[in-house]
Amino acid sequence: TMKEGTGFFVTNKWFLNETGAIQGPIRIEMLLVYGVFILFTISVVVSDWSPFVQVFNVVPYFVVALVLLEVGRIFTSAVSVPLLFYSSLFPAAFMIIISREAHIIVSVLFFCLTMCTFLQSGIHHLQLHTMIYVLLYSCMHGAAVLFMIWFYVDSTEESTTRGTILTPRIKWHMETTFLITIDLLGAGFVLLQNFIKVYATTLYSWSQQISKQEEDIQQLHDRLQQLQNQNSSDSIDMESPLMKVLSDLKEMIAGDEFHEKVKQSLDRCVVLLTETNKLYNPNIFKENKRVESDVGNFLDNMCGGDNLMNEEASGPVNLQTNVADLYIAPGHERDAIMLALQEKMDLWDFDVFDLAQKSDGHVLYYLGRAIFQRYGFGEQFGIEDSKIEHCLLMAERGYSKENPYHNAMHVTDVAQAAHFFLHVGGLAQYLTDLEVFALVIACLFHDYNHPGRTNTFQVETQTDVAIVYNDNSVLENMHCSKTFDLLQQSDCNIFSGLTEQQFRVVRAMIIQMIIATDLVQHFEIFNKFCVKAEFDKTQEADRQLLLTMAIKCADIANPCRNNSLCREWANRVTEENYRQGDDEAKAGLPISAFMDRSKPHVGKCQRSFIKFIATPVFEQWSKRLPSLAFMLDNVRANYAFWKEIETAEERHT
User: Fold this and answer.
1) Helices assigned H by DSSP within 152-171
2) CB–CB of 537/430 below 8 Å?
3) Which whole-number Å values give the CA distances from 286 to 123, 222, 300, in the listed order?
């Protein structure tokens, strides 16, 4: 912590300044530097090292030093430190001149002590300031030497306007060597400053982590003490539901109440429950022996199974996707676009590509504005209009135009689908306003900063993001992290009007929804949704399950759109997959199923996705929201279309 003092005595401890940088007691140290050279001058006189150095010359030097220190104290902290830094050149020049024959040793000592002091300053761009200071110091030293040559010329020791001649006189080869030495020392201080910065930051980070761990340990210790102090009647049941089920099943098997055939069935249940930790995930290859290897590999790879296969696919068809440059600032036709959007956003045939053309590519910005207006988020949650606008523009900037599929148009399409579920499908009746807000934000940011390559690719190539997130939902975790990095910025903080409790709830919901878009989570979420008999909107867990299903359905809704939109999205995801296949080939990895552009199987890929993923999901979704049942007509029509494409591909094989 920083302790304020009086005068130029600010602190006798290290502290973090207002910019978060580590800073030392530099004013006290500068006072000591100036004082050291007063003592140095006195020692020169006493030792008769330089007979013509006079003690009275120190008086104006000391006055200059005090004035500079006091001026540095008066100015604001943002200005005072650089001011102290550069103003030290004046007493340095004065000391060099009055030290006469000792000027080189004085100069190098003053330079080193000053640099050591200001390495502790914590000012912005310290490396740049250091280089500038080295240059100015060299110039100052040269100017001081020129002054000495001009001033110290009296050989009679009687002149009142000139100083006594130097003995020995100035030798320029020595001065040049000294200036080069100063520059080299300056370069060394620049490197040292960078090391100190990294080292100090690391130490501070470690201390923060240690403090946090100590707090956690203390909390655990307190909690353990509470548990130990509880009465035996308040003991905690630590047995998990799964272990209770297994225990009951084993008791039934061991008993005599059931027929042998029933016991065999129960025994099989025990085996199924204990052989995997993915209770909701189907074992695609074991339970579906007739599934083609490439389809099974595609589904297993996409949904995070453990049965990865690497058999090759084959066949012609070359699909190319042209991704236009859609990232231009919003134009002057904003009001007309917003007016048209208010009608079109309620239609399931909403065409995001048409909006991209009319809005110069600002699809996320315009649809986001329209949704915020429709639900009144600004008024409800106290969000300033400027923050909404900046947030949406920055969100849009976070999606790469190089990605054919995972770009701003995809998340805009997902957000519109979620709005349709809420507004037309009747989903909003189950949710609170805060949950609707969280769903919209999750949709807009669920692929934020997407690199255009899958989780599997990140893990196989051990990218930075895979290492950071330990191979678990790496992209989805990254999307969450990047999203909240952006939204905590003051001009993008659309949560600033929420209470602390509301923010915690919204953050938890958004994270859970974004993680749910990882298809590794698909079967667990889907099967939990299927076995849920009724949804109680008074239960938070039920509403959260609806939210996760809503974003999942919106994320994979392409097969539910009309055939024209479905084909465009299929072309885009195919091209993005091919690009990953190209990268896998370059890295010497097996090319993932349906990602080899030389052996395309677009029809089979799309047909398989619709059959095994989209159709079951939307059948269940439309049961919960019956007004969405018409989507299944599009799903079936698109399935038939891709089945024909698959047949055509096989004929060309």
Assistant:
1) none
2) yes
3) 64, 49, 12
Beta bridge partners of 154: 164
Residues in the chain: 653
Q: How far apart are CA 446 and CA 476, in angstroms?
A: 7
Beta pairing class for 163-164 and 152-154? parallel
Beta carbons of 635 and 610 less than 8 angstroms apart: yes
Prediction pTM value:
0.57
Answer whether 387's CB lies under 8 Å from 492's CB: yes
Query: In this predicted model, what pLDDT tens digit does every residue of 106-155 receive, in sequence order?
Result: 888 888 877 777 777 767 777 788 888 888 888 988 898 888 888 877 66
Buried b (16+ CB within 10 A) or exposed e, 535-562: eeeeeeeebbbbbbbbbbbbbbbbbbbe
Burial class from Cβ neighbours inside 10 Å (0-12, 13-18, 19+) for residue 290 reads: exposed
Position 93: which residue type?
A
User: Which is nearest to 10 in space by CA: 86, 99, 70?
Assistant: 70
Q: How far is CA 181 from the centre of its chain?
A: 43
In single-letter form, the type of residue at position 244 comes to: K
**Closest to 380 in 3D by CA, of 344, 336, 434:** 434
Binned at pLDDT 50, 70 and 90, residue 321 comes out as very low
Q: Which two tokens stand for residue 9?
A: 């005595």
Q: Are strands 22-23 and 163-164 parallel, antiparallel or unpaired?
A: unpaired
> How would you classify residue 216: left for phi > 0, otherwise alpha for psi between -120 and 50, otherwise beta?
alpha
Contact partners, residue 41, CB within 8 Å, separation at least 6: 53, 55, 57, 58, 61, 95, 98, 99
d(CA 633, CA 300): 27
The pLDDT tens digits of the residues spanning 228-243 come to 665 444 444 545 576 6
Indicate the SS3 state at residue 53.
coil
In eight-state DSSP terms, residue 154 is: E
Angle at 601 between CA 596 and CA 603, to 5 degrees: 145
Q: Does the annotation mark 446 as catalytic?
A: no
Helix (H, G, I), strand (E, B) or coil at 558: helix
Q: Which two tokens stand for residue 173?
A: 């080869």
pLDDT tens sequence across 22-60: 566 666 766 676 676 667 666 666 665 555 555 555 566
Percent of the chain clearing pLDDT 90 (strictly above): 45
DSSP state of 148: H
Average pLDDT of the segment spanning 263-280: 67
- Crossing angle (nearest 10°) for helices 563-586 and 631-651: 50
User: Rg of the chain over CA atoms, in angstroms?
Assistant: 36
Q: Are 401 and 599 spatial neighbours (Cβ–Cβ below 8 Å)? A: no
The tokens of 327 are what?
């990232």
Catalytic-role residue among 129, 406, 450, 522:
406
Residue 533: strand, helix, or coil = coil
